[in-house]
């Protein structure tokens, strides 16, 4: 009898102390010493349903505030408060599942050092960003090209919408090239797990916010890349997606409730129109369709009015910054989010990381439309706190028409002048991210009719205008392509695969035009690093005359004169016309060609040419 009782007590004790299996906690960990210390844990059983909402934590410095139940009994939400006195360690969360008490180990870590100095440094006008699609850049580890158990097993470089095998090891292998090109920050399209059936190369249909995709090398390789970048003084930008996730995300396949994404009686797509959000005459139904409609049938539209979903997203962004040492955050499809949620999220990030740079994808038409979604000088009922944007206006209504339209009162390079003149709407135009192309836009080389000189003018403008310049991988060697029908806009970087006959990393097989364009970017980007005028200086420009556009970047130490001739004829440059900025200087040197101008009198610039002149006393 005594033996029987003893074995019964041992069995009960083992049942009580067993670590819970098939239970996940989100966030997967947190840190001591964070300003963000009121956390909502989402606890999910991937096995049996919870039979009780009884959850306890016996850990010094952690207080359980509230437990939330859902109609799906496999989920619980737990509000906790982490006191400043709490120490790093393993927190045991005790739950009851089918009458059995189980313990979940949840890490509470010491946070990384160097907030604002070693990471979360922010991205500024002194930086030069390279936007890279990891799957299309370089295959550094062929063993992860396919991962057993994942839905998308495609691997065919001849098919533009299949996977091609690029990974984070491929990026690490080529950091010398990127840094030598003058790049200071890397922004990747999302690298989180995309366990979808197909079209997973772009990364925007996330299926697990807390996993780096194994086909890119997983969490460990992403951490290694971050460490390598920071050792070089470079920065890492995180692409956050709040508006939608992939259809196979566990929060859609196994919903806690039916209102974590926007539901419609039948499939309803967004109208892709931002105007109803600020139009004084707009219809509420149009506004709802814009914000709550789905991007695609495979991308459920997230309901950010749901407080649990909102907490999940905000905590996840902070988790990524702290876990991987992020320096800047790019926010995808910003205009489609609930804007009050977006303000709350921006505030939470900046509260924890005051030097963090946040810039939103505002793919709209019209400078005022764009300004509405950023910190602005407009008197409107809604005020955005978004610090910066991707400046599509200077692309659509600036540099593209400048190089593709004949000059006119409102056409050609005048459009670029008008667009930049509207910077008074923005709080901080120097934080706008400039671009010539990206993963959603046609390659600039194709847009300008594969004209090499126009491509070079585009790069010279990109690296001398106000704001933060952003390169799209491969454009420096004239990669071309439109979005449709072939999708070549997302072509592989030449030399990223061992079988490539052309290698842009080494120069092997490049044409003279490709080499000269790459050399221009490299030379100008590295010159820019040392030029206070180009990185932090003011901008002054003059009204374009007959296709000739002149602007200056300057400060007390340095003056750069930029002359863009967009006409079909050579143009005279009379330096005295610009004496507000040229007075006191007596010579100049072309930064790109090293041509010297012994005096600042009159000269001529050839047709369709741009000069970047460093003025000297």
UniProtKB/TrEMBL annotation:
Keywords: Glycosidase, Hydrolase, Signal. Residues 131-528 form the Glycosyl hydrolase family 13 catalytic domain. One of its GO terms (molecular function) is hydrolase activity, acting on glycosyl bonds. Residues 1-20 form the signal peptide. SMART domains: Aamy. GO terms for biological process: carbohydrate metabolic process. PANTHER family: ALPHA-AMYLASE FAMILY MEMBER, MALTODEXTRIN GLUCOSIDASE. This is Alpha-amylase. It comes from Flavobacterium hibernum. The lineage of its organism: Bacteria, Pseudomonadati, Bacteroidota, Flavobacteriia, Flavobacteriales.
